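From the shared-data thread, chain only:
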Amino acid sequence: MRALESRAIAVNARPSIDLLRGLKREEIELILAAARARRVPAKSVMTYQGEPADSLLLLWKGRARYFFETPNGKKLILIWITPGHSFGGAALVPRGSNYLLSTETVRDSVVLVWDGPTIRGFARRFPQLMENAITSAVDYLSWYIAAHAALCSQTAGRGWLVFFSDVHPAWVKECQAALNSILPTRSWPMQRISLRIQRAVF
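Structure, as tokens:
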């Protein structure tokens, strides 16, 4: 990596990385050294829904989120991505696969990028990496089920209150923005939901 990129991923600034949990230090260093660091401005799309999954990415710094575009053009905001979390996991599939969702930065960010053959090679060499990727996929699925159940099984406001009560506090402010794209603000004022979320979480 170039000097600038190396400084961007300095060891003393390293976030907790779910994808590399359980690996030895030298294995982690080897995998990180193979990544390409990219600085990505806020409001930039990094992966596109339906396009070939040719890279796996990891958010090193900043904030990002998944979104899905419906056939009629509506943009649905989904789970948020915080430093240390990877995305574009479809690149780990041996046969050709496409990204299921799009991702975009919310703040100026730094991401690490591995091309498909490289990250698949590491997954074969270090099975723990693939196990971590599967665990992350299960976590994302659990998030979706919880969110969907909250919307379908209770009133909008109470359902989201229950859901946010189980969310890590660091996500709360960002996730509140997602409510704007899902809930009708006239039927349940966003100010009331935000206040109840803050009380439940903090």
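Strands lie at 36-40, 45-47, 55-61, 64-69, 75-81, 86-87, 102-105, 109-115.
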